[in-house]
Each structure stands twice: as structure tokens, then as C-alpha cells.
Amino acid sequence: MPRASAIEGVSQMRFGAMILMCGLALLSACASGDKELVSSGSRYAAPDVALEDYRLGIDDRVRMTVFNQPEVSGEFAVGADGALALPLIGRVPASGKTVSEIAAEAQRLFGDGYLRDPRVGMEVITFRPFFILGEVTQPGPYPYTVGLTALNAIAVAHGFTPRSDRGVIGIRRSGEAEEKIYKVTPELRIYPGDTVRVQERFF
């Protein structure tokens, strides 16, 4: 009888351990919303924003230079309607376009009865902010700087809270409906307009 009781006790312990493991797995799935964990790809490889390919969004700020025309050159921000309000030619759609594409369009419009043989150059001078939410000390919007990593972003928000899950974060890119769950590494990059969410850990 004592031997049978001992075997029964071991079986109960194993069963309890299995229940605990299942519970941990369930909580882990809930924490990430059953989303696939991303641990590789462009966010881990790109050193910074590729400026020539960068597509503007609301609150990005550019410097436009119209050669030999200082009165129409200057700095301009992408407005809430996704356009740049430029001298003489008015509002030019900018959201989702590169500065090269916008400069070419502005050059065409300036040449259509406003300026003779205009030459237009444009560059990004200030990127739109990123947002960080969840288990950080001071959540909110923060200015973006080229080369920003996830760990930099968390440091800017004054660090993790004691309840934070420091192994993964959620990131939703500007213009996308859903966030993705990423493994936190020193290489993980944040882009302008990203919404970063630091999750709460369960244990």
C-alpha cells in the first residue's frame, strides 16, 4: 500500500506539472495575442531609414530648395490632409511619396506658368514622431532620430516598468492596421510613425 501511494503521489505531481506547463503556454499565447513572433527580417538588418526610399507621412518636415529662387524655398510640414502647402503652387500631395517624387511634381507645377526652368531639390529634415505605449515609465509620442532601436525607444520613455515583459514588444507600422510581435534584440529598429507597445509579463 505505501508503494502504491508513492506511485500515486508521483503521478499527481506529474499531472500537476503538465497542467502548469499548459497554463504557462496559454498565458504566453494570450500575451502575444496568438501572433507569430518575428525575430528576423529588415527591422533587424537595416542600419537606419533609407532616406532615398523613405515615404513621407503626416508631421514629417522637409526643406525645399528652388535654385536661385529663395523667396519660394523653405521648410514645410506634411499637414493632416497628407499634403505640403507650397508657395505659388498650393497644396501638393505628399503622404506615401518620396521626396524625389514630390520634388519632381513641384518642379513640374512651378514650371507650369510660375517659374522659368525651375530646379527643385528636397530633403527630410525632421521625421514624424514614434509612439510608445504599455509598460514603460512615461508612455507617449517622442521625436524620431535616425538609427533608433527598440531599446533606445524604451530608454527615451524612461525604461521598463517592473511589470514589463522585456523579451518581446508589439510594433504597428504607420499606415498598417495590425501590430506584429517582435523579439527584443539590440538590432531591432523603430521607424518614424511606429506605435510600440511593451506588454505586461504574467510571471
TrEMBL record:
Record-linked InterPro entries: Poly_export (IPR049712), Poly_export_N (IPR003715), Soluble_ligand-bd (IPR019554)
Domain Soluble ligand binding: 130-176
Keyword set, alphabetical order: Signal
Gene Ontology molecular function, alphabetical: polysaccharide transmembrane transporter activity
Record-annotated Polysaccharide export protein N-terminal domain positions: 52-123
PROSITE patterns: PROKAR_LIPOPROTEIN
Lipid biosynthesis in keyword set: no
Keyword Signal included in the entry's annotation: yes
PANTHER family, A to Z: POLYSACCHARIDE EXPORT PROTEIN GFCE-RELATED
Record's protein name: Polysaccharide export outer membrane protein
Species in which this protein is naturally found: Sphingomonas prati
